[in-house]
Amino acid sequence: MDGGSKQNARPRVLVALASHGTSNDRYLLRVAQEYRGMSFDVDIVILSNLKKRVAPDIELLVGLPSRNPWSLPFAHKKLFANRIEEYDMFVYSEDDILITENNLRAFLKVTATLREEELAGFLRIEKGPNNTVNYPDVHANFHWDPASIRSRGAYTLAHFTNDHAACYVLTRNQLKKAIKSGGFLVKPHEWKYDLLCTAATDPYTQCGFTKLIPISHLADFTVHHLSNKYVDKVGVDEAEFNAQVDVLLELAKTECRPTPLLETETTLWRGMYSKDYYEPLSKELISMIPPQTRSVLSIGCGSGTTECLLAERGLRVVAVPLDPVICSGAAARGIEMVFGGFHTAKAKLQNERFDCVLYLNVLHLARDPVKILSLFKDVLSLQSAILIQTPHMLCAPTIWRRLCNTPHGRDLGSYNHTRARLTSPGRVRRWCHSAGLKAEKTVGILDPRVGKIRNLAPGIVRALTPDFIELLMAPEFITLAHKG
Fold first, then answer.
1. In this predicted structure, what is the pLDDT of residue 399?
2. Cα torsion for 469, 472, 478, 481, to the nearest 10°?
3. Which range is least confidently modeled, 187-196, 252-261, 329-338, 466-475?
């Protein structure tokens, strides 16, 4: 049975649940009960690193694919391949992901409308106090791709760049395609995601499928992460998430598919140095904005935490956003948005002048940072300030990791390989000079843990750590510049 199967048929479903240790056994029991109550013909296999008591109708496979305990999830791949002709649908998930019969039926229904290379996927939700909803997969550099919006039958779908939802579903034909690609039956590996996550994302990342979320039928494609472990820690709330989806649905009604301002994700280990779409507020940055500032231009605005704070303080804030989806919340709070690429935005701002221009962790992702700095020089007066926040890729911790031959810094410095420019205070000063700007001051942004220590005894720590040492240790820095 595949995507075109009738709703009232009884698919044969093989479910593999990765369950390491015993801490999640209470969730595992709930998940198993859900599958056993389905009207499908479901067989459940629990993959574990140790023996545990399971119901007679549940199979237990004990063992790790490699010595690394986090490799356990990869055990499901051989299981699926060995039993490929026995089942119509294959479900993999971690032991605290609640997938319902409605989810599986919705998957089969939408699959009938999709193209061969398209694969419907899920997003996790968590529930907090008072039944609030959290979307833990929406964080850091992960975001909706507005250019991916498409219609298939009654469905509107889009790609979310975080392929990990701790689960996936494949039909038999899709599993055969994944195996044939050569990217499914592979040894435990990691790069963009850790081992645990990689096992659940391989079908999308290296088997030729594009993961699509049916945003027009979103409730059918959300699954409950029963542990709720990321509530108030990672993710966005329901209001912010729905605002982004509403923009996607509006864009779907037009023929326009906006492209992002620039490529924001690097190919480095764990996506290191990618743009954080939910960038936290930097007190150091705020303190460096001149007190006489009345208008601010932000190049590469994400969710707009910094921009909204400045607007709340009475400043006029204009932003060139990364895309029209991520900035929806900031736009609703009064930030003026200028959409389009760099050149289009500059043309729209031709007659504007700003007291301060912000580049928050975007210049290192541009193919030509000097060109971007030069492009927006005309919106500055002689008194205007430019603040450039960027990663410090030559800080002491990064150099140490490279000396230890870890994969973190592999190919660092090669933009064509990593989609990131090597950045240091010296390099940013040279960018400014080449763009006709004068860099006047550089301040390090310390790791929050170091910052806490400094705050406990600021005088002592300051005396023991001169500015140049503090900058050397800082994983990020801010450069203040003016027109030359």
1. 80
2. 80
3. 466-475
- Domains identified in the chain, total number: 2
116 lies in which domain range? 12-252
CATH (domain of 154): 3.90.550
The angle formed by the CA atoms of residues 294, 300 and 303, to the nearest 5 degrees, is 85
CB 433 within 8 A of CB 374: no
Residue 196 belongs to some domain of the structure: yes
Place of tokens 């960018």: 431
The answer to whether residues 28 and 17 touch, using CB atoms and an 8 Å cutoff, is: yes
- Whether 169 and 279 map to the same domain: the answer is no
Residues 423-439: tens digit of each pLDDT: 999 999 999 999 999 99
The whole-model pTM stands at 0.92
What is the spatial distance between Cα 258 and Cα 249, in angstroms, rounded to a whole number?
Answer: 13
Percent of the chain residues topping a pLDDT of 70: 93
Query: How far does CA 317 lie from the centroid of its chain?
Result: 26
3-state secondary structure 113-173: CCCCCEEECCEEEEECHHHCEEECCCCCCCCEEEEEEEEECCEEEEEECCCCCCEEEEEHH
Same domain for 402 and 300: yes
Higher pLDDT, 409 or 8: 409
